[in-house]
Amino acid sequence: MNRANAVDAGAHQTVALAGTADGLEQLRTLVDAALDAVAASSIKHGGPVTVGGPSAAIAAVRDMMHGEGFLTDAPGPDRVTELFETYAAWSADLTHPSAVSRMQCAPTPAAAAAELLAAVLNQSLHSWESGPFALELERRLISEMAGWVGYGETASGTLTPGGSISNLVGLLLSRDHMLTDAVGSDISQSGLAGSAVRPRILCSAAAHFSIARAAGFLGLGRDAVVKVPTDEMGRMIPEEACRLLDGFTADEVPIALVATAGTTDHGSFDPLPELAALAAERRIWFHVDAAYGIGALFSNSLAPLLDGLSEADSIAFDLHKFGWTPASSSILLVRDEARLSPLAQQAVYLNPPDDEAEGYTALLGTSMQTTRRSDALKIAASLLSLGRKGMGDWVDACHSQARYAAARIDRHPDLELLAEPVLSTVIFRCRTSEAIEDESAWNAAVRRRLMTEGRALLARTKVRRQDGETWVHLKLVFLNPATTKEEIDALLDDVVTAAAEVKEAMRTQVRHS
Q1: Beta-bridge partners for 230
Q2: 158: which strand partners?
Q3: How far apart are CA 31 and CA 3, in angstroms?
Q4: What is the C-alpha to C-alpha distance for residues 235 and 213, in angstroms, rounded to an integer?
Q5: What does 167-191 look like in DSSP terms, one character per residue?
Q6: Measured at the alpha carbon of residue 293, what is the angle toward residues 291 and 298, in degrees to the nearest 5?
Q7: Which of 1, 171, 291, 478 has its Cα between 20 and 30 A from that of 157?
Q8: Considering only CA atoms, which of 284, 282, 276 is closest in space to residue 307?
Q9: Spatial separation of the C-alpha atoms in residues 133 and 115, rounded to whole Å
Q10: 330-380, pLDDT tens digit by residue?
């Protein structure tokens, strides 16, 4: 079929399914249009994001819709191409050296191509016939990942929609395992109603918010989370965890000790060996949230940060941060496959026992999901593209960028570094010798100005200082191994310039008020 005829404008009857011969021709045309849109987008806005801020983004969606709904009476490839062009133009350019706001990486070409292939073939992992190679690929990938962290042959795991869900699954498993032992019945069957125990989850004060949210989802309540004090770098203090455990009443049952390997701000690593020993001594499930910190595993120089990881009962990590694969690429590993039993499910129309006995097994019983896409494909493609050395080199490059930026900030009279970077995040603030009524508001406004003008995408956080006050700080997250020192210099120069501009605007406002 002629390519032009395959996507005849206005003739929606000619739209074919992607895997057919006609559909593949249409797909080639649309992929070309999508790639052209990506290539044009960086030229159009010149920075990491299009100028204009929230109001302009809202207007862009409105203009693209032309006053219609998505179920338009005039469908066709031109409308799709316009959607692609607008989407690309208004997407954050993760390859831009000034896009340093989130733990969000640009993917390798291999991973992006694999994502397309996974979408075209649309395999699922809930039954053998829905994706025979896809499910065996995930099994092999999980097995290899278990080896990365030092687990043995009894280990297992699953891919999830994100790090928050990986933490949720890990805590689900800990809840059912620990409370079943505590109350003497299968909690996943009987539930928590009428239970005489009060479950408790210990995590650091710097732990990811998903831990408390998971406690709410699991029926434990957010109040079940006990925050353990941290040191000045946001690392859990094991002695404080021990003190809190010693203070529990008889009906308080600690079901999990959650360590963080790579906090969202400092990138700090809790002392895993000491916490693993404490969890073993008290017979508590030890879960490690390594969503960000898993990148250290690929670096010869940074890998010691993860010493003790193999002692965890469960580990959550993402490869859509350090891993250069599209989101979502999150993994939950367990040291003992038997601990996945709360997820076990027999559905006669999906995994009948006689089929499974003949080897037609799927992954329904390892996940909270039924229909589940093959995220293992893009991860495998990226790993096979880079290899171990390539992964390590890229992690080291990002770490070096953070150290360079920190050194430059530390030397600059108008910037203040909070601490030396542990992995690839840098926390700092703009400072001035002149009196400013609210320095936190000033720093926050600097960030917004840079975003609105399309010059840089920075993150922000709040830091409690030694004087007890909490101040807004800015944060850089380096996940682009190609960023140069010159580009980092230019980024920080933009921050300093924007700070001066905002300060002058604030002065003018005060004078006119």
Answers
A1: 236
A2: 332
A3: 13
A4: 21
A5: HHHHHHHHHHHHHHHHHSS-HHHH-
A6: 115
A7: 478
A8: 276
A9: 15
A10: 999 999 999 998 888 878 788 888 888 888 888 878 888 889 999 999 999
Instruction: Spell out the alpha helix ranges (H) of 196-349.
Output: 210-217, 238-246, 272-282
Question: CA 374 to CA 165: how far, in whole Å?
Answer: 17
Residue with the two structure tokens 């239970």: 195
CA distance 73 to 196: 60
14-21 contacts: CB < 8 A, separation 24 or more?
18/119, 18/120, 19/120, 19/121
pTM, two decimals, is 0.93
pLDDT, tens only, 92-112? 999 999 999 999 999 999 999
Domains of the chain from N-terminus onward: 3-93 (no CATH), 153-337 (3.40.640.10), 385-512 (3.90.1150.10)
Do residues 131 and 298 lie in contact, with contact meaning Cβ atoms separated by under 8 Å? no
Tokens of 289: 């949230």
Distance, in Å, from the CA atom of 199 to the CA atom of 148, rounded to the nearest integer, reads 32
CA dihedral for 95, 98, 99, 102, sign (positive or negative): positive
SS3 125: coil
